[in-house]
Amino acid sequence: MDTITAGNLAAFTIEASLRNAIDEKIGYGDSEAIADLLVKIAHRQGIGAVLAEGIAHASQEWGLADLAIHVKGLEPAGYDPRVLKGMGLAYATSDRGACHLRATVYKAELSGMIPPEQVEGKAEVLIDFEDRHTLFDSLIVCRFFRDLYPWETISLIIRGTTGMDLDKEKLQELAASITNKAREFNLREGMSPSDDTLPKRFFQEGLNDSGKVLPKADFDRMVSDYYRLRSWD
Predict the structure, then answer these.
(1) pLDDT score of 44
(2) Are 90 and 185 contained in the same domain?
């Protein structure tokens, strides 16, 4: 059972309960009820049978699609795009939904490589991380070596293991071709550019402590930049 998805499903169930959309009575902080809910999901008992199919399915079943937080059916981690705009772009454009590991661009935003609120240049940074991580996956290298394996080191590893002498530009072309193949597969299977978005709540509901939202204009600008840099129409 995935901890991120399970936690999101628990919170979604609590919100549904508070809105009297379901008969189940469960609230925030009720650890015993939450633990019991996880057992029900694991064994597909009662409402657990609905939740076991994922938040997209459960939200449709309960008529709460606008409440559910997911992208392409995958629930996000705790990196909130209302603060980390690059993570919003990463969630939206990822081939498998709101995955925080496809690019781990939160590292760039949290470490000061690029300000979290900055929009200009955010797509370039995301793609740099995304392309390197794509090659990490191909080499079966842990993503958390991102700070230790710059492009030059990746080139050295590939030269030593395959004999191919590839500079950064050639490596980027290889990574982009993999990303494009995944994109072509998704489009063939019915995904459309309209799926490259975020739940409306990120654009409309402010964070409790700061009131921050992700301005839709900023998000649209980043997606447009990303498409342009990927040569997607």
Answers:
(1) 97
(2) yes
